[in-house]
Automatic annotation (TrEMBL):
A Pfam family: Iso_dh
Coiled coil ranges: none
Domain Isopropylmalate dehydrogenase-like: 9-342
UniProt name for this protein: Isocitrate/isopropylmalate family dehydrogenase
Organism: Amycolatopsis heterodermiae
């Protein structure tokens, strides 16, 4: 008798807006992929439904918003730590309020990773800078205090270089750009980068965001470009980079948030690039493509279902070829109808490629 294989388990965290609908999609699709590769995949769902920006504003009052923001952050941080301690390596999270989310990212030292194209790997520094920090309120004034540190900068750059080598194992990154507003930091950030790059044995080009934008416009992308960026720039530019170089829309993409804190080392959070879409909640019109892709990626990378990503891409192509899509993608179908069409394409029929054999 062969050795018993432990059941893979993934985490699930759900925000308001369309979070509940997309969580249902994720559970349904992940379970189906597991069945197709003869693997039972467990799902541990956080007991709290986290606020979106819109639902927080509906809560009323700055003090109440501050309290709920902190409660959501504390709860989600505990959930991530509990999953990591239990040996869970992946969490799928729908969109939640950014302020709560960035408190967690700062505490758990997160970076966001997106291979925008085969030539461009984007690593967003979510662990420091303006998107992190704390607010202090006085009448008619909000003072936000944030930190940059050499320690975090080294963790982020070291991870980014290692991930780039995983992306391009034969040659590694050809060019490494850093896009930060470093002119505001008294020369300290540039000195850190030079020292860290020297230890890593890599050449790094540190640029102001407007300089990086100009170079991208003027010269385009060099092959095997690693772009490491502060969120002050990268959050805005992410969707632009997807459209300009990848020919993609944010509604179709997921990203990985990798936590670098030792307490959660190895935990990867998958999320859709699009937000909570509160205006679509309950209408059955939210685009499930990014969630479908995230479910396939988690199944393949964290639950032992080889071929899931390729099979999902094939199923999505078949659905598109038949004109199936939500209204934002030019179709006339509901979320449920799109998911059903894609799942039908995943079914192992004689003329189809199974997940295990994709």
């Amino acid at each position: 008798m062969g050795a018993h294989r432990a059941r893979p388990v993934v985490g699930l965290a759900v925000g308001r807006g369309t979070g509940g609908e997309l969580a249902d999609v994720f559970e349904t699709v992940l379970t189906r992929i597991g069945l197709l590769c003869s693997t039972e995949i467990g799902i541990t769902r956080s007991p709290r439904t986290y606020h979106s920006y819109s639902s927080l504003n509906d809560a009323g009052g700055t003090e109440r918003i501050r309290r709920l923001t902190e409660e959501d952050a504390d709860h989600y941080e505990r959930f991530c730590r509990e999953q990591a301690n239990a040996g869970v390596s992946a969490v799928f999270r729908t969109a939640i309020n950014a302020q709560s989310l960035y408190l967690v990212r700062e505490r758990l030292q997160a970076v966001k990773v997106d291979p925008v194209t085969p030539s461009l790997l984007l690593v967003r520094d979510e662990a420091q800078g303006f998107y992190t920090g704390e607010n202090q309120h006085t009448p008619d004034t909000v003072t936000r205090t944030m930190v940059f540190s050499k320690e975090i900068t080294e963790k982020v750059l070291t991870f980014a270089v290692r991930r780039a080598w995983a992306e391009w194992p034969d040659d590694g990154p050809a060019r490494i750009f850093l896009a930060y507003k470093f002119h505001l930091l008294d020369g300290a950030f540039g000195a850190w980068v030079a020292e860290i790059a020297g230890r890593l044995g890599v050449a790094v080009e540190l640029g102001q965001p407007d300089t990086v934008n100009r170079n991208l416009v003027e010269h385009g992308l060099a092959p095997r470009t690693l772009l490491v960026a502060g969120n002050e720039w990268a959050d805005i530019m992410h969707v632009v980079l997807l459209a300009a170089f990848g020919g993609e829309r944010q509604e179709n993409r997921y990203t990985e948030n990798v936590h670098l804190h030792p307490a959660v080392d190895g935990l990867v959070e998958y999320q859709t690039v699009h937000g909570s879409a509160d205006d679509l909640a309950g209408t059955g019109r939210v685009n499930p493509t990014a969630t479908l892709r995230a479910a396939a990626a988690i199944a393949e990378r964290h639950a032992g279902c080889p071929g899931a990503i390729t099979a999902m891409e094939q199923a999505l192509r078949e659905a598109r070829d038949r004109g199936v899509g939500t209204p934002d993608a030019g179709g006339r179908h509901s979320t449920t109808e799109v998911v059903a069409e894609v799942l039908d394409a995943l079914d192992p029929a004689p003329d189809r490629v199974s997940v295990a054999g994709a």
